Each structure stands twice: as C-alpha cells, then as structure tokens.
Amino acid sequence: MTGTNLKRLHVITWGCQMNVYDSGRMADVLAPLGYGPAAEPDGADMVILNTCHIRDKAAEKVFSELGRLRRLKEATGGRMILAVAGCVAQAEGAEILARAPYVDIVLGPQTYHRLPEMVARASRAGGAVIETDFPPEDKFDHLPESATPQGVTAFLTIQEGCDKFCSFCVVPYTRGAETSRPVAAVLREARHLVAQGAREITLLGQNVNAWHGEAPDGSHWGLGRLLREMAEIPGLLRLRYATSHPREMTDELVAAHRDIPALMPFLHLPIQSGADRILAAMNRKHTADDYRRIIGRLRDARPDLALSSDFIVGHPGETEADFDATMALVRDIGFAQAYSFKYSPRPGTPAAGADVQVAEADKDRRLQALQALLRNQQARFGAGCVGLDLPVLFTGPGRHPGQIAGRSLFLQPVHVIGMPSLIGHETTVRIVASHPNSLAGTLIQEKQIA
Ligand code: 5AD
Ligand code: SF4
C-alpha cells in the first residue's frame, strides 16, 4: 500500500470514545482497499464524518460541516467520496441525503464492516448509498484486527447499545439493543493491542458494566471476571472501563476493584441527578441513596478510588429543590472530576415531549452553580495530589521541549521533564503542582518500574 496506489482517507470524529474507537476501525477496514491516513480533508480521496447525536444542535452542526466539506469535494472535481457515519447518520440518514445530495455514503454504527462494499457501490452507481439498518451479523466478526497501533493507552469496545431507555437519551435508538462481544474475541484483541505497544486498555461500552459473555469453559462471565482475566495479560499494566450504569455495579465488579491492582482507582459512574423525583422521571431505576450506597461499597473495596460522573440540569420537571438535591449529592460524594450538561431535548425521546420543560435561564444558572462546585472539587482533588509520589504511565512527548506527558492513576495528565525513552513505561513521579486540568511533577527514580 505504498506509492501510486495509496488513497488518502481523512476521518473527522465527534463525540464519545466509542466514536474514536469506531473511527479507527473504519480506517482499518478501508486499509486493504489502499486507503492510508490523510491529516487534512483537503484533497483527500475520502472523508468520513463520524457524528454524535447526544446533545446540542447535532444535526445543524453536521449540515454546516457538510457545507464546508462540499467545497473541498468540488475542489477535487467531485472525486472525493464523502461519508457520514455515527449516530446522526443513524437517526437522520434520509434527511442527510435529501439536504446534502453530494454525500455519497450514509452509514449507521452497526454497519462499519460493510464500508468497503459501500465504497465500491458508491463509486460504481454514482448514486448515494445508505445503510442504517441493524444487520443480523455482528460487525465485530467482520472487522479486521486493527492495523494502526493506538499507542500506549488504547480503547477496546466490548459492549454496544443500551436497553435502559433513560427518558432523555437517544442512545437506545441510535446504537440499538445491548450486545456484548464474546470473551475470546475481547481477549484476542486485547493481546493484539498489547503486542502493538498498549500498556493501558480502557474497555468501552455505552453500558460497559452490563457486558456479559460465555467463557471458553462454558461458564458465564460478567465484567468483573473479564477484568480478572485481562489483568493476566503479560505487559498490560493498567485497566479501566467506561461508561457504567449504577444498576450494573455487581458484587463481583466491586470485588474486582479490591482484588485487581491493575484496575485503576478511578471510576466514571454517571448519576445524572441527585433528586429521586427526577431520577424516577429519567427512568434511571435507582435512587440517590442507592448511588451513595454503591459508592460506599466501592470505597470500602478500594479506599483511594476517585470518582467521576455525568449530570444533567434542567431535565423536564426539575425544580429548584431537585437541583439542590443534586448539589447536596455532589457535596456528599466529592468528585475528582465530572461532566455536566444542560438538558437538551432529543427528537423521539420521551422527555422531549414532556410539557414541563425548564426555562433556559434556569438551566443556565443551575449549570453554572453546579460547574463551579465541580471545578472546586476537581481543584481540591488535584491539590491533594501535590506532594504525593504517584505512578505515572508515560504516553508521549509533552508540550514543551524536554517534557514528557503521562497519566496518573486517576487519569490526570501529568507533565515532567524526562527522557522520551520513558514513554510506554510507568514510573513514580513526585507531584509538585496542580493546574486546573493537569499535574506537574518530577521524576524521583530514573529506574522504571515496569
Ligand atoms: N441532554 C443533556 N445531556 C445528555 N446526556 C445524554 N443525553 C442528554 C440530553 N438529552 C448526557 C448524560 C450522559 C452523557 C453521555 O451525556 O449525562 O451520561
Ligand atoms: Fe443513555 Fe441511559 Fe443508556 Fe446511558 S443508560 S446510554 S444515559 S439510555
């Protein structure tokens, strides 16, 4: 795949880590057709826009980006193949083709393995190709092993889709029902990633802790058991998983946090609201106290566990008292970091049709108050790391000459002055300063730990 055969593929990725992972797999599946990476869309032979539908004005954003790409396509004399993938493609495929007829391919997240065939059809037919059905076969069975190494920290999708149907969320509609990848396939890909240089793997899924699978001996495994097996892979130093639902936090998974040193003491566990009324309206099927109890069990298992979460302010029906309950929960738990969003109505979801929408000004005010509190907690957590000696896994060069960058156990970026030869290794670092989104440290032992 060198020389004149090389076609240039540029992938634009919006949204979650699962989209980042998917973009990599789309590049992998196109590599045998001669497509290699292009840093810019200008002059590329193919551009894929991998979209996200979770919040904000997703469709408008897609159409405005497509307008820009249209001009780039025209500059290639129309030769550039333009594909729209991801959740907006899944939800709005027909509208995309109606409003942007210069798009060649529209494909939903479950059909990425069919991309080579779609490219062939698009080149032949001259008409647009749309594939947004949920095919009977599993795309993962048909995707090649990743050709391009992800680096020191890698993602591995083990679960997709969601059956939880939270009132506000499009995922069950765009990603379909919950499915789990089989144990053998997950372990094979994990070993492949480690052979390519990965030292940390984050297992991904919309509901990753709902993952379950049949083991080689016929027994049934949950995520806790899978993590135990993953931890045995030689060369793999660190494990993480995201994103989880509180209802799937089994005893086995909690025990994994106690028993597996490689499982990092940082967990992203969305709660969305601290008010039971709103949790019920959201169809979360747990209360704020259920969440507090789960956190208690996790902290008993792993006392240094740092927590992250997702919050939505202004879900339909949210009162000032409900919002106060969210603030109280945040104060009770104490988060190392968290994401918070204004509720945004998603077409087709139950909450979008509710007649008790919260005024925009109230949403703004609540978001500001919540984010100020969360920022404060994050700063306090960072400041608490100063003076500690923490293992850091170095992932690449830093921003300034002589610097290298890595990650703490708690996923904070850490910068030190150090040799590039430490990249790919875990070393103890004395943390000397905390910044809003990162830590600075000094190497206290040149000898690498692993
Ligand atoms: N409005 C605002 N935030 C949302 N999220 C999901 N759907 C919506 C919506 N309609 C947030 C949730 C979820 C995260 C990925 O995005 O907090 O956990
Ligand atoms: Fe969306 Fe709820 Fe499923 Fe998470 S659990 S993906 S918020 S429906």
From TrEMBL:
Metal-binding in keyword set: yes
Sites where the protein binds [4Fe-4S] cluster 2: 162, 166, 169
UniProt cross-references to CDD domains, sorted A to Z: Radical_SAM
Domain of life according to the entry: Bacteria
Catalyses which reaction(s): N(6)-dimethylallyladenosine(37) in tRNA + (sulfur carrier)-SH + AH2 + 2 S-adenosyl-L-methionine = 2-methylsulfanyl-N(6)-dimethylallyladenosine(37) in tRNA + (sulfur carrier)-H + 5'-deoxyadenosine + L-methionine + A + S-adenosyl-L-homocysteine + 2 H(+)
GO CC terms of this entry: cytosol
SMART domains: Elp3 (SM00729)
The enzyme's E.C. designation: 2.8.4.3
Protein name, as recorded: tRNA-2-methylthio-N(6)-dimethylallyladenosine synthase
Chief place where the protein resides: cytoplasm
Native organism taxonomy: Bacteria, Pseudomonadati, Pseudomonadota, Alphaproteobacteria, Acetobacterales
Family to which this protein belongs: Belongs to the methylthiotransferase family. MiaB subfamily.
The encoding gene: miaB
Compartment(s) of residence: Cytoplasm
Stored PANTHER family: CDK5 REGULATORY SUBUNIT-ASSOCIATED PROTEIN 1 (PTHR43020), MITOCHONDRIAL TRNA METHYLTHIOTRANSFERASE CDK5RAP1 (PTHR43020:SF2)
